[in-house]
Amino acid sequence: MSAHPPFGYQKDPKDKNRLIVEEVGSEVVKRIFEMSRLGLGSRKISNILNDEGVPTPRNHRKTLSGEEPKPNKRWRAEVVIGILRNQTYLGDTVQGFMEYARFGRTPPKRKPKEEWIITPNTHEPLVDVETWEFAQKLIDSRIHPTKSKEVHIFAGLLKCEDCGYTLGYSTKKDKSNNAYYSCGQYRRYGRKICTNHYIRKDTLEQVVLDDIRKYSRLAKGESDKLTKQLLKQNGDKDERKLKSLAADLKKLNTRYTELDSILKRLCEDNVTGKLTDDRFNKFLTGYETEQSEVSMKVENTQQEIEQIKANKKDTDSFIELIRNYTKIMELDRTVLMELIDKIVIGQSKEIYGQKAIDITIYYRFIGAIS
Description:
single chain, alpha+beta, Hect, E3 ligase catalytic domain fold, 3 domains, three-stranded antiparallel β-sheet
């Protein structure tokens, strides 16, 4: 209903309230998401588009309408982020996300997402869910480069096991001349808030790389074994449990239908005088109570079934994703963002005279693997 459709779309000439893909702009949108998937930030993407002379969304819209584009209009990082954040590119219509003041010149405010009106699958998407969610994760991580303009591959992914704060990369070397990460709270406030939670960069890279290789090999060669392991750790919900629940659901639905028939006959018997009002009310209360209980059990069973299916779907997604990394030789930012949600670093401790650190890797879709 807005005056201008989002960049990459145009209004359908046959139905002004429907979006259709606009060929030139849509290719730019797809490319922006692809560059984001490769780990490029919004500023870098905008610089590339400016260097190549790609028209901005506003100038492109003017060209489509036959107007003269404004000279020296350049892409800005904020425009790129706006495109990457726009759920319209998933094929959804999003409305009611801004709150406008009725009087005065108060600027509009963005509403919380839970208050938005989202209608899914209203038009052709330009990106898939996986690509869009990956872009959101990159933006949310709010990564800032160091003074040397370098963004470290673990930036935003490392969390302290005790205080939950992010582990930061140290630009200084330790006593052995090794680069390392340590708890930001400890570095800022000392032992009053937390402890060091120190880990060498090369050690962490090797641990994570070995873990990815391990599960990638399992996903490729023994996917059934890995699937069972992952399903078991998520509550021991396997195919047998699913079949049992399906059988229970069938019985419950049958009983619900039977109770409907019984209640109908009770009403008929009461109307024809075969059943007194006292007995009718007594039976009615009992059967209605049972039907309400059956209805609640049906709902709970359906939810449990959906949860198992969701767990299975997440497991399949993880296996499909990680099996592509059997030949991985080194880590980079894109690999980590695609596979991992976070890595929790524990405090070092001494075991039999050797220092040990608990490192828990939380993979996308499935979390930590036990």
